[in-house]
Protein 1
Amino acid sequence: MAETRLLDPERWPRAAHYRHFTEYPCAVSLTDEIDVAALREACRGSAREVSFTAALLWCVSATVNAHEEFRLTELDAPDWDAPRPAVWDVVHPVYNVFHPQRETYTSTCTLYEPDFARFAERMKEDAARAERLDCVSVPTPPNVFETSAVPWRHFTSVGAETGAPSLAPMIVWGRYRETDGRVCLPLSITVSHAAADGFHLARFLNETEERCAALAREIGGGR
């Protein structure tokens, strides 16, 4: 069962920024390309079947879980005047399984697992289950973040309007393309400004790219 930890406003460095952007809500977003050449090659060349989508989703999830600002939530209680910021101990990715014949999708979730092989096996089972469904989404736990893939197009920016910016990040990636020997994949992250700034979003992109390279070495047996 997921657990939460209340953040102490006297000791939390982001408390003032959180209060400001809760009073004046807005979202912050950043899109850039990351190089996934090594990861694509490792998945293709592996002796065992390795899904590039599962590998990328795991790298994204590992980076999200590595940082408190992407695991924030709010807790209510009768004796509190306003919701209190808290942080989940772990968050899990929600993603869409596309139905080509209907041109619709079903959103599902795979529980994050630090071990990539176990995560990939879970995702294979969850995605296969969602492929057989004709519904918008399946029930998910409360401690999730949203992801979406647009594999039909390479993009330079992406946007989704909502009524209020979410403390949980929304992460989108598109179709990769080869450029000067690099395999460049567009990756976008959007989150409430109460949770994070441009520094945190840039770090997310940098670390996800680094994790892709590290996972490629793991899949390739250290090559």
Protein 2
Amino acid sequence: MTFTAKIKEEISSIENNILENEIILLTYLKYNSKIKNDTIEIVQENAKVARFIYKLIKSKYNIDIKIIVRIQKRFKTQQIYILEIKDKINLIKNDIKKIADKNYLESKEDYTAFLKGLFLATCSVNDPKNSGYHLEFTIKKQVDSLLAKKNLQKLNINCKLLKRENNYMLYLKEAEKISDVLKLLKSINCLFYFEDIRIYRDHKNMVNRLNNCDIANQEKVIKNGLKQIEDIAYLKENDLVRLLDEKSQIIISYREKYPEVSYSELAEIISLETDLTIGKSGINHHFIKIREIIKKHKKSTTK
């Protein structure tokens, strides 16, 4: 079962009040039904969602609903459920129009019920275990996509809108925002699953960043040490060591012994093995002086 199907099944098992059920149903019908003059047809792949919508229709309108089960062999073999309504069509059509009425949805609970109906009708969410974070609502008409976008904004769900082939797509790619949607849907089991994977991936990414940072720092230390070894060799070749004070001479002798260590490590080694107490900044200061000596010598020899 897909991650999306698990969320939808969890939504379908939640108890709602009468008004919330009405909004869920009318939103679902608006976004996932074929409305003709004398028939309303609903196609649903998930048996539990189909049963949930069936109960909502039966409860609100007390009508007979024809159920057709077909085997679909596109991509993979699966059952699809078709609910066919032929009674009270005009009443249902008029009720569906309420969703677009600016005065119909008023409270946060109303907009959350709209979200539930929209999710059941149009939404898919990537399984975070297998791919990146992505949630999308696929909607046929532009006007309906704009209505959905506006209603979702009432819940601080700010989806991006994209035209894709014959449909319109509202989508989220931020893990935190997708998590917020799951909280509003009260899909607790799927939320815990999503958050567990999110925490694991965030931790893994942080460790990778730290490792990369450590590697980059180590490469920088080694490169710096090798450059200083070259500078020391230049001093010796040109009889410039005599220009250094005693501290600098001690430091270059230890740098030759430990070319791969950082300033901090070199300072600690020198402090432990000699009477010289020095820190990281002190090491750096002495090598700056050495570079100045080399720079002046090179300048004088090129005249």
